[in-house]
Amino acid sequence: MRVKFIAPMIAALTLSACDIHLDSETPEQAKQQVPVAAETAAISRPVFPIESEVAYDPSSVAAYAGDHAEVYAHIDRSLPAHTQALQRWMRQRSISAQNDGIQEMAEMLRGDLEAMGFQETALVPTDGHPGVWGHYDVGAEKTLLVYMMYDVQPVNPEDWHSPPFEANIVDLELGKVIMARGATNQKGPQRAFLNALESIIAVDGKLPVNLMVAAEGEEELGSPHYPQIVDAYEDQMRKADGVLFPMSVQRPNGKPGMFLGVKGILYFEMESKGGAWGGPQRSEIHGSYKAIVDSPALRLIQAIASLTTPDGNTILVPGYYDGIRPPTAEEQELINGAAAKRDDDQIRKALGVARFIDDISGRDAIVESLYIPSLNVDGMWSGYTGEGVKTILPHIATAKVDSRLPMGMDPDEALAKIRAHLDAQGFQDIEIRQLSGYPAAQTSVHADLTQAIISVYNKYTSELSLQPRIQGSAPFYQFTDRLGLPLVPAGLGFGSGAHGPNEVFLIEPGPDVPVAGLAEIEKAYEAVIYALAGDCLL
Predict the structure, then answer these.
(1) Burial of 389 (0-12, 13-18, 19+ CB in 10 A)
(2) Which of 332, 352, 369, 535 has the least C-beta neighbours within 10 A?
(3) Same structural domain for residues 26 and 127?
(4) CATH number for the domain harbouring residue 11
(5) What is the mean predicted confidence (pLDDT) over 67-73?
(6) Distance, CA of 165 to CA of 150 (rounded, Å)
């Protein structure tokens, strides 16, 4: 998942590719390497001390006390059909990067909303993949806006234990799971949420709140056209009391992790081509010519290396750390509360890593993750990468890079600083193409929607861990900044493997596994709806 912003700014930010070429300079000028400036050599990651020892305690919020036995019974009876509904969604391909099944999935979602009784449904045209809009209006006092994404990441089928678009039920140590692309990110949680709505309507005749759905098919592309979806329905969206993003937040030990925001993102490509500076200009050539010809691949590596310290952990772009908003008093309390419940050994095990940067842990790791920008190389390619031997000197090399941005950083400004740094280091010939970008987003723990969701967690779980945001990204700024609405990702359940092989969504936990199965996930979503409506809240 990725998020943030003002529509005109976003359109300019995400739709403008910064293709920078070097045509007019002499080879000597183009190739000149500028020594690292003193200001660059002195750069270090900022430190944000936590000055408060007060910790926010989610258990201070009274547990939701509502009980809707008839709805619960309907969910239990409908579990086979509800499981099939999840599988139907997961079997529908919707790979946004390849435009594979996108139109079909968008229509499937729109049709499901229509079948549930949404008075207004539509496919929303954009300059990219279509959005999906739905409006369910019963004249209720409260209105909930639901953000959804119907697209998924590409797959390498050979890496999967079960075909990624068959959505088979597989027995694992934790219990029965659906294994499929999109199982946990985000088709499983989203369809479970709709299952819960269907059960409420079936029993009570209508929902206790008005409900809007604003879905996109480009979240995995960085949401470049989501502002256009908001443009189309902004007036209606502004009437909402808050925004829900259905997702699974339980760990294998059953303890839920709740977050109230996301980092922003800058996503771009860097490319080195043979040109006036040197290197083959038309095509690859024999590798033996490296004795007298420059290498675009090595030049790209050197350009990327100039962006950080040798360990890759401190960004050496002048001014890159400027403007970061430190943790507020409220956020410091949330950080303290989350640190007290953090298990770094479990996190490292789940990630499959031996250690964190500088061996940080606890509160320091949270602050580093949420308040310091990162720079990551997502992929690199050049020349021959097949089996055996092919000795060539490639004429082009490309890398995909992402930078996760904390509150206070603007993606346009971040890219401009990277461009200026590369130029100052003699890499004017390195092209940059921006593919995505938006700022961070944040919701207050004291918002009514936040408090309602905490109350539901306190009914179904214990030891809720709550932190200001996560290091991942999503376009939540469209709601928090543009519309001024609180947004909370929430939902019981467990899933794993997002963006990777063997992605799963747990539907039936095994013995002694303290994680919600599909029935309990749906009951918790039902409780969120009623809690927001004011039923037995606080």
Answers:
(1) exposed
(2) 352
(3) no
(4) 3.30.70.360
(5) 96
(6) 14
Could you tell me if 407 and 447 lie in one domain? Answer: no
Same domain, 297 and 175: no
Q: Is 205 left (phi over 0), alpha (psi -120 to 50) or beta?
A: left
Residue 92 counted as domain residue? yes
Interatomic CA distance for residues 130 and 223, integer angstroms = 11
Whether 472 contacts 72, CB under 8 Å: no
Q: What is the pLDDT of residues 160-201, one digit of tens each?
A: 999 999 999 999 999 999 999 999 999 999 999 999 999 999
164 falls within a domain: yes
Same domain, yes or no: 237 and 253: yes
Question: Using only C-alpha atoms, what is the Rg of the chain?
Answer: 25
Domain boundary among 438, 453, 475: 438
Mean predicted confidence (pLDDT) in 207-235: 96
Least-confidence region, from 32-36, 132-136, 137-141, 215-219: 32-36
Distances (CA, A) of 408 to 217, 401, 404: 28, 20, 12
pLDDT of 24 over the 70 cut: no
Mean pLDDT, the chain, integer? 92
Cβ atoms of residues 220 and 503 within 8 Å? no
Residue appearing with tokens 């809009």: 133
Do strands 175-179 and 504-509 pair parallel, antiparallel, or not at all (unpaired)?
Answer: antiparallel
The domain that holds 161 is classified in CATH as 3.40.630.10
pTM to 2 decimal places: 0.86
Q: How many CB atoms lie within 10 A of CB 350?
A: 12
Note whether 143 and 194 are same-domain residues: yes
Inform me whether the pLDDT recorded for 315 exceeds 80. yes
Q: What's the domain range around 272? A: 7-54+264-324+372-438
User: Which residue is listed with tokens 């997702």?
Assistant: 247
Secondary structure of 427-445 in HEC code, one letter for each residue: CCCCEEEEEEEECCEECCC
Residue 345 lies in a domain: no
Q: Which residue has the higher pLDDT, 42 or 481?
A: 481
pLDDT recorded at residue 37? 52
* Strand stretches in 55-197, DSSP E: 120-124, 131-136, 143-149, 168-172, 175-179
Average pLDDT over residues 51-55: 95
Per the structure, the count of domains in the chain is: 2
- Tell me if 347 is assigned to some domain: no
Question: Can you say whether the dihedral through the CA atoms of 135, 83, 351, 251 is positive or negative?
Answer: positive
The type of residue at 353 is V
Are 210 and 248 part of one and the same domain? yes
